[in-house]
Design goal:
This protein is mostly helical. It has 16 helices and ten strands. The chain starts with 40 loop residues before the first strand and ends with a helix.
Length: 513
């Protein structure tokens, strides 16, 4: 499996070496091995499509304005007192795991780069295809080339960790992703043999993928067949999303209303579910704001550890997709070194460890590490848009024709956050530029959702959870993708299921927590 950057899919024919795909819009050919149903992407709020008043004004200067907005979204060092949310840090990466399970954009648009002068696309959905199943079915875990255990094809194959003491307490050697061997071709060198290579993008999501593989094997050990174990794990997974993850991240009144009465704004039939662009390109990217600049991941890399906290950059180094498994001392390993295994009780609320590392507040600032993205071999990227994650998100939303936050709020019959109110919801360092650019009145949807969540005024979310617009898009999308999944936890009439499982339960089933 060739190494792939975020947003790239396996090409048909010979492998294509691409430095970084999240900022490129090169031609893509849909792989016949992937699901080919249409439509793959669409708009949740179709009534806003084609309405100029519901969108950012098109023009040659809009790209430069959005890049300027991105330039004030980086915190100097977003690990300061008061920046913590009340959400354990593990849920940041559980959200990324979910995203990789339901979306993998294949893009076919003229031009390879994303210059600031680009105009919005006309009918952008015709350029996009989804290489995932757009269902909460663990497609990223079970789809090819995820290998079965040799000698017992009911189990999923695991990889062993490299000896690099100390191994965290209670961990065994079977705690890495299955991998290819060493290769002179960086695209294949120690690449993970998993259904979606992006789950080897950073250490925490890679360890979460390992936990799901181990949980499947534990269910087989209890007597389940491969198919039975997959169905049971899907049930646990969906239950953890609706009963554990979302209650911590979204407006609980929105969540309960959807679970009790169904969605208000988007009701696709069984044959029509797709991934809304308002979700994929804006609302579900709220997690970028939750990423920390450093992490306490195990007994070696914690506050009391001899090496101190692990920096964000190291989360990307210790994966074959973005690094080389080289230790701080320069030793290069064949697989993940055992002293980098995640101790989940440090990132998740566990009774025996009541004070885990928390995610950052959900607001309009991102950790500084997300303002210096690198290429496949760790090299600096030449294009300014490619380097800055906020710029990628804002330019992509504009290019794909997302409505403004105010337009979406109005269609929900909610009072939009605009003008002075929006400015007051922002950190002081952002207000002057946002007002000068006019984005306090017509706001990019992704930025609006972050501002709505980060609003520190009395009675507002205060960075603890999403606001009305963000919560509605996230909950209604996940509800529909779960309801029309094979093995859905929802009843046939869409009514609320019993939610028994949490993320911690899945980690414990896999004997990693």
């Amino acid at each position: 499996m060739a190494r792939l950057r975020h947003g790239e899919v396996p090409p048909v024919g010979p492998s294509i070496h691409v430095q970084d795909l999240d900022h490129r819009l090169g031609a893509r050919i849909k792989d016949a091995n992937f699901k080919a149903e249409t439509p793959d992407y669409g708009f949740m709020f179709e009534a806003l499509v084609g309405d100029p008043s519901a969108h950012l004004p098109a023009g040659p200067d809009m790209g430069r304005k959005l890049f300027a907005l991105a330039s004030v979204m980086t915190a100097n060092h977003k690990t300061q007192i008061g920046d913590d949310s009340e959400i354990p840090a593990a849920y940041t990466y559980f959200g990324q795991f979910i995203d990789h399970d339901i979306t993998l954009e294949e893009i076919s648009v003229d031009g390879e780069n994303l210059p600031l002068s680009l105009q919005p696309l006309v009918d952008p959905t015709r350029y996009l295809a989804n290489a995932r199943t757009a269902a909460l079915d663990l497609d990223s875990v079970y789809s090819s080339p995820a290998p079965r255990e040799v000698g017992d094809d009911s189990k999923m194959r695991l990889g062993t960790v490299a000896t690099a003491p100390p191994r965290p307490s209670g961990k065994d050697q079977w705690n890495d992703l299955p991998r290819q061997g060493r290769s002179h071709d960086i695209r294949n060198d120690r690449a993970a043999l998993i259904g979606d290579p992006r789950n080897d993008e950073n250490l925490i999501v890679a360890q979460l993928h390992v936990a799901f593989l181990r949980a499947h094997n534990a269910l087989v050990d209890e007597g389940a067949s491969h198919a039975e174990a997959r169905l049971r794990l899907q049930t646990m997974y969906q239950s953890a999303i609706f009963g554990d993850l979302l209650p911590q991240l979204v407006d609980v009144t929105v969540l309960e209303d959807v679970l009790d009465r169904g969605p208000r704004y988007w009701r696709p039939s069984r044959s029509e579910p797709f991934v809304p662009l308002e979700f994929a390109v804006a609302a579900f990217r709220f997690g970028h704001s939750m990423v920390r600049q450093e992490y306490d991941i195990n007994e070696s890399f914690g506050l009391a550890g001899r090496l101190g906290k692990a920096p964000l950059a190291a989360m990307f180094t210790f994966t074959a997709m973005s690094g080389s498994f080289s230790s701080l001392a320069g030793q290069d390993f064949d697989t993940l070194p055992e002293n980098w295994l995640i101790e989940w009780h440090r990132l998740l609320q566990v009774p025996s460890m009541p004070h885990p590392v928390m995610a950052r507040r959900i607001d309009t600032t991102l950790s500084s590490g997300l303002d210096d993205l690198r290429g496949l071999e760790g090299e600096r990227l030449p294009e300014p848009v490619a380097v800055r994650l906020a710029a990628r998100n804002l330019l992509r939303g504009y290019r794909l024709g997302l409505p403004t936050g105010q337009a979406v709020a109005r269609i929900m019959d909610s009072k939009p956050l605009a003008g002075v109110e929006l400015l007051e919801a922002l950190p002081e360092a952002q207000r002057k530029l946002v007002e000068a650019l006019g984005f306090h009145e017509i706001t990019p949807l992704w930025f609006y959702i972050l501002a709505e969540a980060g609003d520190m005024r009395a009675g507002k979310p205060n960075g603890k959870r999403l606001g009305k617009v963000g919560s509605t898009i996230v909950v209604e999308t996940l509800y529909n993708l779960a309801r029309w999944s094979s093995g859905s936890i929802f009843n046939e009439d869409g009514t609320k299921p019993k939610l028994h499982w949490t993320l911690l339960d899945i980690l414990r089933k896999g004997a990693v927590a």
